[in-house]
Amino acid sequence: MALPEALHTKAQRAFMGTVLFQAIVVIVMVGIVFGKVHDHVDLDLTRYKTIPCYLALFILAEVFELFMAYDALRLRNVIQLVGILLFHAALIVMAALQVHETHTALVKNESANWTVDYINGGGPGTLWQGVLPFLIVSPVVIGVSWLVLIFFVRELYHEFGWAIFHIVGANPAAKTMYQFYQVMVCLLKFDFFAFIGVTMQLLIVVLSKNTAEFGLTVAAIPIVLVLLVGAGLAVQREIKWLMSISLVLMLAAESYFIFKLVRFYEPASKEQYETVRATLTTFTLIAFLLLFSTFAIGLRCFADFDKGLLKSKLHGQSYRPVGAPYKSSLFGAKKEDGGYGSGAPLGPRVSIE
Predict the structure, then answer these.
(1) Model confidence over 19-35: pLDDT tens digits?
(2) Which residues pair with 121 in a beta bridge?
């Protein structure tokens, strides 16, 4: 069975394999923690809702990273590979935060052992001590795999170095415009994860179904998804009216994130977000900064419309590297095999002197 185009080389297979391995390990570790906690506490209680929320976030993050990794290899996109490294580093922070948040949720009596208070104690034999080793494994595995990914990204950089040249040619201006286009598309993908991450935390952990804020959060989901898809379509096909609408909606989405940040800390709703305020604030700030960066890069891409890049955007990824057998037959075959430089041997030179 032939391998997919994205997995032809050893570096590509190793990169994808590393992402897949750490994803399986992390999801299993988080699942074990969820199972152990679920067996002893009521996860419907507000203080324990961070546990299922983190399980959902890690599953989403790992599936998203697998998609991004395969997509980057398929498109031979070095910029997206660098984005994956940054995303992976953020996962290390996220996994470390999980240790802190789980401790906050479970431990109310730090000195109590299992004979005094198994569920709320922090001493030997307690529920917290039972899940702690599995919580520690996640950031360690993600951290080690991050170092491995850095090595393989370096290898892939050399493999993919000529991709843009084959797409847009040797024009430096065209190369710069195409790189901004790649950054824009990559940011839109990460915007999707950041928005879904914030929304998931709000819906699972904080908001009650009978509140107006719950309805506002649910209503924002399709609007933002349409925004991201519309912006991607507009920047690829250079549709000016759609790009204009997308940029305006990005500013509206920025206002939504500012509204949420205010809600996290204003006195009227401060207690509602207390158990997850630090994590939500981090996620919301990241989403805000990502969307702001997308807006800024979007303006630059808008300015590059109608400058001869449309064909490369629409058909550039059809470029495929020449396979080794073809390279060999074209340039590397030996003379006796009929390659370049072969042919009938020259006869002896004849002198007229």
Answers:
(1) 999 999 999 999 998 88
(2) 109
